[in-house]
Each structure stands twice: as C-alpha cells, then as structure tokens.
Fold each of these.
Amino acid sequence: MQAQEDLSVLSPDERQEIEAELGHYPNKRAVCIDAMKVVQRHRGWVSDESLRDIADLLEMSADELDSVATFYNLIFRKPVGRHVIMVCDSVSCWVMGYDRLRERLMKRLGVKVGETTADSRFTLLPIVCLGACDHAPVMIVDDDLHHNVDAENLDEVLEKYK
Amino acid sequence: MATEKVLTSNIRPDLSYVDIAAYESSGGYEGLRKAMTLAPGQVTELVKQSNLRGRGGAGFPTGMKWSFVPMGADAPRPKYLVANADEMEPGTFKDRLLMEGDPHELIEGMATAAYAIQADVAYIFLRGEYLLSAERLRRAIAEAYERHYLGKNILGSGYNLEMHVHLSGGRYMCGEETGLLNALEGKRANPRTKPPFPQVSGLFGKPTIVQNVETLCNVPHIVKNGPGWFKSLGKTQDSGTKIYGVSGKVKRPGLWELPMGTTVREILEAHAGGMRDGLKFRGVLPGGASTDFLVADHLDVPMDFTGVAKAGSRMGTGTMIVLDDHTCPVGMVRNLEHFFAQESCGWCTPCWSGLAWAEKALSAMEDGQGQPGDLAHLEHICRLCAPGNTFCALAPGAVEPLQSALKYFREDFERHIAEKRCPWRSHE
C-alpha cells in the first residue's frame, strides 16, 4: 500500500509549522508532541522516517521521541485510512448504547475496533470520553464531533466521508 | 432565590462565538482592569477571602495555592500559569461549554490570576479533541493581544504576559497536575514526586500554578464584585455558583449553572427532568468517573465539597452520571475500570497491576465466569490502591466507584457469580 511508504524528509510547510511552535517554549524538546501532530496532520500518521526527522530537528534521539509518541492516544504510529472514526467507549456513552453502536460500526465497516477497511476509507478506533456526555453516544470522524449517533443515523453520518 | 448566572451569562443559546466587543459590552475585562489597580498580593488576598475552591475535582483552596508562589525581585523567573483544560474525566463536559461559549472569560481569568502570581507565560493545556475550543481560544487570544489585555505592558501597567494554547497528545494522566507539566515539557505524562510542589518548582523547574478552567473563570468576577458577593452566591458554606451536569438515562441531560450546594435531587429532578419513563433511579456518580456512588438515600445531599464528602463521596467535577435500573451496575463498573486500567501510566505497581486485575475480574463476571472469591479479591485491590499507596490520585480515584458499587450493589455482583451470567444481558 502506497500510504505506508514515507521516505521523504519533512516538507517546508511541516518545518515552518514546527518552527512556529518553537517560540512558545524555552527549549526544543517541549515542542515534540506539537511537532508529531503537525506531521500527522500532513501525512495521516508518524512513520519511522518522520520520527527520525523530527528527532533530528529537536535534538532528541529517535528512541526518546518514540517513547513520547507511544504514550499518547492521539499520535498514530501506524498508517490510518482516509478518515479516522474515534468512537467514545467511556461510561456515559456506554450507558446510552455504546455496545450497540460499536457492533453496528464493525458490521457496517467489516472491521474490528483498531482496524482499517480494505479500501482504506475508514480506520475505526476507540477513544475515551469526548466531553459531550449530554449528547451520548458520540463519535469523532476526522475533525467533526457527531452527537447522538445510533444504528438509525450512522449510515447518514458515514455517507459524508468518501 | 433566583439563580444568578455568573460564569455562563454571556453564553448564547446557539453557542455562537462571543467576540471581544460583545464580551466587553457586558462588563468583560473589568475584573482584570480592577486587578491592575491593586498590588498582586491584594488580588490573591481577595481570592483567599472568597473561599474559592478548585473546580477540577480536588477542591483545593485557590488563593492558598497562589500564596505558595515565591514573589518579589528574588523569585525565580519565568513563572508560569497553566489552565488545566484537559477535560478527560469521563462524564465531565463543563469546561468545553465555558471555552466554546465564552472564551474571553477564561483568558481574563488567566490574565488576572497570572498578574496575582506575577507569571510571565501562560499556557492553556487543552484536550487534543477539543478543536472548536482551540479555534475559538486562539481567536480570542489574538483579540486580547490587540486590545492590550495580553502581551507587553498590559493596559499600561508595565506587566507583561504571553499566552499560548497547547493541544494535548491525549492521555488521562495529563489532567494530573504534575503529569500535565511533564506533558507540556514534551515528556510522557508520568506524575512527579512532591515535594517540590509545582508552586515552587513546576514547569521547566520554575514556579507554576495549574488551575482548572472553571476555577479560573470565577476569578475576574471575584475581583470585580468582591469576596462577600461571591460567598453569598452559594447556598451553603462553599462559595459561588457551580456548573452541574447530568448524563445517563434522564429526560433532559445537560449543564446548569446553579448556586453551590444545590441538592442532588433538585439537579436530577428539576433540571434534568427526572428519569426517563419506565426507568428507576439506582445511583449516581456525583462528580465524574472517579467518585463514589451515591444512592437514593443521598438525594438530599447538597452538591458542595463538604456535603458530598460527608455522604462518603466527592463532588469532583460536579458532573453526574446516572445509573438506572435497566443498566447493569457490574457492567458500568467494568467500563470504568477498563478506562482507568487503560489510562494508568504504568509508573507505580498498585495502579498498573491492580486496576488491570480489577478489570479482568469484572469482565469475567460479566461473561459468566465469576468465582466466589472475586468480591474479596476486588475489595483487596481497593485497599491496595487507597490514598498513600500510589504515586498520584489516579488509582485511588479509580477504585472509588468500585468500592462503593461493592457496598451498594453487592447483591448484583453476587447474582452474576451465582447465576454465572449477567442478569441484564438477554439470552439467545
């Protein structure tokens, strides 16, 4: 799969966005989480090559940076599909029908939680409480928060993401 | 008494952006202006007198926290103020409302608090998923710089403050004060040893105050209207208003700003509309996932720090999660322990090991594999994870819903074991 190859160095845009963050902190390594998120915004995930480039730029070792990367839920160290679905699996959504929503999502997409569809359209991931508990169950697709998602309106929500 | 809205008075029903002109026209930035006419220590003194306590869960007195920061010419610089906007406590959704609905209130609160401790730099440590909050806070910060509420020589006072937004990489541990500081330094969000306390040696080793969003939003109102006014807002000895929330199977889940000390019953019945038709109330986590269950006997408990503590739980974040009689209490606790086991940072053994075992035992029980010794085992884990045995508050918080469920819903646990099934699950 093409998306898994990521041998290029940081693009001028990525470098510029990372350098803009450097002014907000007293040292370079403090920017490392922001830097990984910059790269992820451009490429969908953080490859080993990107990790090395960021580490070089911030004067860290790649291993040190990877220990940070793997700690955080929102840094992806594996390729993802064109759209990432993050479905809340915390307590309020569970009370309001998370189990049914998860089953429906897995059946509709033909993948388990943590997997990507064969056509690379969707990656399905669990996420902790999204802070919209009065509209449970909720999920995020890419940058959009969707309220009150259930078996009835799920197809309509997913339809927007090609 | 008519409820006086303080924190949410500018928030529009359609939640559209409140810009700096709209904010100023309703009295915005007057608290900061007034603070600038006072000495920094006087601002801290006003907050101390108001009896404002932290709204993030722990309830520590805010003014007292600020008074630990080294002041004067010899104080280490730069000093930092951090807004803890990492709203990750399951069932908690109040800070999102404040940041999306009226972002300038947080910025004014931060600038006022920063002036009191003479901070040089302020960060908003924001959940990575709160993208609308990020967009609006950044827009509001830019407006505040333009009007000289931030930046160099604020309002001609000679005081300087920079403010930045940091979007988190996402982990519950980032809400823990010292875990948050490590995350801001670009490290794993493991907790730090205390002492030294962050007020003396925090972010990048410098004096730092970390404060919840709702707490900070109260500050300019206290400075503007005085500590006496603030105290009079509460129904009990705990001051101010509180943003309460309800989720679960009630008729009208939502958020309401009410006088501190409003009873659990009034919040659940008058505001959340009571249980959905056909469902009965069984219990409630009063202040997020890491608080002990309250049950029907506690409905008249005032939702303040003292009242909920007396009832054996914590007010926490003040956002309640309701358990109804059609929902399995064991399943609910299993969901909670799954969260805590997953979010444990792995730093200390009672937490990473104990919570994983708790989740395993509860999952087995739900799947009909429960054993007679399981309840004693779970109680043992609760004792191992008690305060004092762990590095931070994650594990003690994690076992609060478990230990109270074992107390109040014991017969439901026993049924799972005796019947070798979850009685709430339908059988094929």
Amino acid sequence: MKTYKVYAINDGTVIDHIPATKALKVIDILGLENEGILTIGIGFTSQKLGRKDIIKIENKYLEKEETDKISLIAPQATINIIKNGKLKEKRKIELPDEYVGIVKCSNPNCITSVEKVKTRFKVINRAPLMLRCHYCERVISYDEVEIL
Amino acid sequence: MSLKGMSIISIRDMEKEHLEEVIRVAGEVKRGKHKNFLKGKVISTLFFEPSTRTRLSFESAAKQMGAEVIGFAGSDYTSVKKGESLGDTIKTVSGYCDLIVMRHHLEGSARYASEVASVPVINAGDGANQHPTQTFLDLFTIREYFQDFSSLKVAFLGDLKYGRTVHSLAYALSLYKTTIWLISPDLLRMPQFLVEELRANGSSVREIDNLEQIQETFDILYVTRIQRERFGDPQEYMKVAGSYRITRGVIESLGKNIKIMHPLPRVDEIDFDVDTMDNAIYFKQAHNGIPVRQAILGLVLGTI
C-alpha cells in the first residue's frame, strides 16, 4: 500500500510540482495565509523536477486567474481540483496578462521603488518573457524578474 | 474619440485618432477660433522639479485662455519637504482645482498621480520616462510642413538612449508607419525594446552611426543634446559631440528642404549660425507649445 506523506484531501485544491522550497512563497503570492487548513510538503522526490513542493488547500477551489499568478516562480506547477474525494479538474499554469503586486520593478527611479504603490506589470511578450512596468514603462526580461 | 476627462500620461496610451484630434484643435486654437475657453477653471501646476520652458508655457497657455493657475515650482516650500507622500499631496490638491499639470523626477509618478487624483492629470515629464505634451507639439509642428506622416522620412540624431523626447516622438510617428533613421554613437543607441516596438508598429527603422551613411534625402532631422555626464572619458565626449554638430555646411549637404527640429535647450549641437536658415524650425516648435497645450487643456476639460 502506498503511504502518503501528505494526506489526501476530500475537497479543495492541490498545487503540485512547485520547485522545491518555493511552497511558502506560493502561499504568500496566493494570499492563502488565512484560508483555513493548508498542508505543505517540501522537498519531495519528483521525476519531473528532481525535488518538489506540494500544497493542499482544504475546502477552497482556486480559479485559473488566481493560480496563474504563480507562473513566475512555479511555471511547471499542476493544479488539481478535488471534489468529494475525486479529481474534478487538472490544469497547468499559464502566463497571465498582468502581474499585480508580485514583481519588483528593477528601476530604482520608479515610483513603486519609492512610494507605497503596488507594482503592476503587463506581459508584452510571452516567449521570451518580457514585462512592462505599468508605471515607469521599463521593460524587463525573465532574467531580471525579482519577486516581491 | 474624446479626450474629455482623460489624463494625459504617456504617448503609449494614445491612439492615432487622439493625436489627430489634438493636432486639429491646436490648429484651430492657433488660428484664433476658440477664445477664453478656460475661464472659470483652476489649473494646478505642480512642478516637483525645476523646469523653465514647460512650466511657463503651461501657465501662459492657461492664463491666456482665462484660467486661474495655482501651484509651485520646486518642492522646497511644500509639505513634501515635511515628508508628505506624493499620493497625499495629489489627493489634497485634487480638491482645489479642475486639472493638475505635474512634473516629478520619479518615473511613473504621473501615472500613479492620475490613479489617486479625482481630476485629470497631465504629465509634464516624469523622470526619463514620458513628456507627452512635448510630443504633441512636435507632431503639430511637423504637420505645419508635412501633411502625410506615413510618407515622411525622419532622422533622430544624438542621445537616443536617455532622451524621452525622442522615444515618445518616434513612438508616435511609428503609429503612422513613418520611416525612421536613428543616428547615434554606440553608447547612446536607442534601447532595443523601443526599436522593436517601432518596427512592430510598422515603421521601417535603421540604426546608423553618422549622418553621411544616409544616401537618400529625408525630410526632418531631429537633433538632441549629447550630455557630457554620459561619458566617462572627456576626450571621448569631445570627439563624439564634435561629430554630431550641425552647421550651415551640414544642412546644405542634406538638401534645401530639410527641416531641423530640437526640443531645446540647445548647448552647442546646432551652430547659432543655423538659426537664421529657413530649415531651422526649433524656435517655432517651442512657440507651438502654447496653442498645443491650450488645445490639450480645453479638450481634457471639455471646454472646446
């Protein structure tokens, strides 16, 4: 019998294939701190990633727009929606059109680097990834992306 | 396409129709068709950093059409000095006026101000980012000589890396698919993502090192200042600045119809000798700041 290190949930969302040690960051980005019971597994063996993290969120079904917010730190994550103990939906992460409050602007002279203004980046190119700051209009590439 | 109630923050927010609307109305204002259309309006000019031309031109433009102008130039004597945030300053001033014109050294400050203000905001320069009313007056000046922007050939010369004027105008012209040459030393080339943006909009763009490489005639040479502080080595600066200097002789070699533009202030990149030539239209360009800014104020406030 297979033993589960993270027990199965009956209803909720499972985010699998998160790069190892990024689980807490994912929780932070998705604002799940006060969303009831979370089960977090860190550093599991994964064929796909080598090591991975898993998050199980009980009694909460995350919408696609929400989970796409983690595309910058967990692009290969898979989302499983569980209802009554059954897998109802399985989906991958896609790039959203915009990142709000997730990416830091690399421009020290940008208003978001100085005042308490939530950052906003529009995705202007998907491959290679290019983001434009809604405020200072600077374009940054994937290598320059710094998560807040 | 109405500009009424709209904040004017970046040329990237503009459709070609907006540009045409401003050019058309600025022409009407310049010909004296609209009088006193800002009477009863209060306009705030918040210049958190110094400016001569832009502030005076906005204030003169507003007053000539009957508006009251309040504001400050330099934030030394304001609550900003006491540590007030930009957001709080803007929210407060919003209650005192019908429209805010602002200049601030932080990039994106005008966009942010427009999001917290309850009145429209006009960006009069946010750091190295945007200065849209300069672009409108550049376009208006070009239209006084050339009707069709799509068949136009424009060369930008000088500092194309940091010059926000060039970035915005080149972008605006790319909406018309204007042919663009970018002439600059290697160190001061236009950022690649901007060049790509111009091409994506349909402009043919060529990047070269010097004017002599253009073998065909073109219509406009837009000159910008090369700033000494961009160069680590003063000798390198002297060499580069010298090779981008526009003299009477250079203009004669470019053909008699070429128009020379410059956002001003000029230092020594254009010989004073050139000022009297018919080709030099940079002072006319600066004076067009008045009718163009009047048109923008009237359109945004819905009084034209």
